[in-house]
Amino acid sequence: MEYFEYRNVVIEAPYSPEAEAYRKLELNIAMMSIDKKTQVIQCTSPTPEDGKTTTAINLAAVYAEKKKKVIILDFDLRRPKIHRAFHCVNDKGFYDYITDDVDYHDLIVHHESNIDVLLTGRHFSFPHIVLESHKTADLIEHLRKEYDVIVIDTPPVLSVTDSVIISNYVDGIVYVVAYNKTKKEDAKTALTQLQKNNANVLGIVFANVDVRKTKSYYTYYSDNK
User: Fold this and answer.
1) Residue 174 falls within a domain, yes or no?
2) Residue 8, Ramachandran bin (φ over 0: left; ψ between -120 and 50: alpha; else beta)
3) Which of these, 202, 163, 204, lies nearest to 39 by C-alpha position?
């Protein structure tokens, strides 16, 4: 079993080059949102372990740092990770909202970092069906009225169809690839799948860049031409 430690460097090391890189990412998103509000942001990647979850939690931390009301939704229903990143017990969450009609307000974890979190809760048998439901769409629309920013952590594009489904609900996608790890063809194929679904890919984050060589842990470029 994987026990990877997800570091929120914006909180743990706020003056580090890594933290500053996430602030630049947030600034790039803001600059692209001058004419159209980017409120719901999806983080995904081509393949597992590309850095999408780390990007999601650190981007949320930047918004919280700027006094924005922010929530992270863990919609990686098959391999949830957000509870590990925030050291929470994943005993209730989205599952209870879907199956038992529990009020989502009662399921939100108010973390000490000033980031709210909605975990997955128990395991879903058919995640893609759940994500296509009206209840999922309704949840996001309700949260739009309550939060400044909603960050959604989603599965890798090439693993399952879930990320493509979720792309229909969001304002933009941060697409994460791991430097010197993600295969070029995988990155291209997954990006094409998103674009065929008319997803708004805001840009690409290169994760795992060697800080000793680049002075930056994460770099970013816009996919818009």
Assistant:
1) yes
2) beta
3) 202
- 45 lies in a domain? no
Query: pTM score, two decimals?
Result: 0.91
Residue 220: predicted pLDDT = 46
Comparing C-alpha atoms, which of 216, 151, 162 is closest to residue 16? 216
Contacts of 86 (CB under 8 A, 6+ apart): 57, 109, 111, 113, 115, 117
Backbone torsions φ then ψ of 38, nearest 5 degrees: -110, 95
Residue 34: predicted pLDDT: 80
Beta-bridge partner residues of 212 = none
- Decide if 31 is inside a domain: no
pLDDT in tens, 140-149: 999 999 999 9
Q: Which domain holds residue 137?
A: 51-222
Q: What is the mean pLDDT of residues 193-220?
A: 74
- Residue 2 inside a domain? The answer is no
Nearest-angstrom CA–CA distance, 22 and 135: 32
**Domain CATH code at residue 109:** 3.40.50.300
Please tell me the total count of domains within the chain: 1
Cα separations in angstroms, 132 against 43, 58, 64, 73, 97: 18, 27, 29, 16, 15
Among residues 225, 159, 172, the alpha carbon closest in space to that of 39 is found at: 172
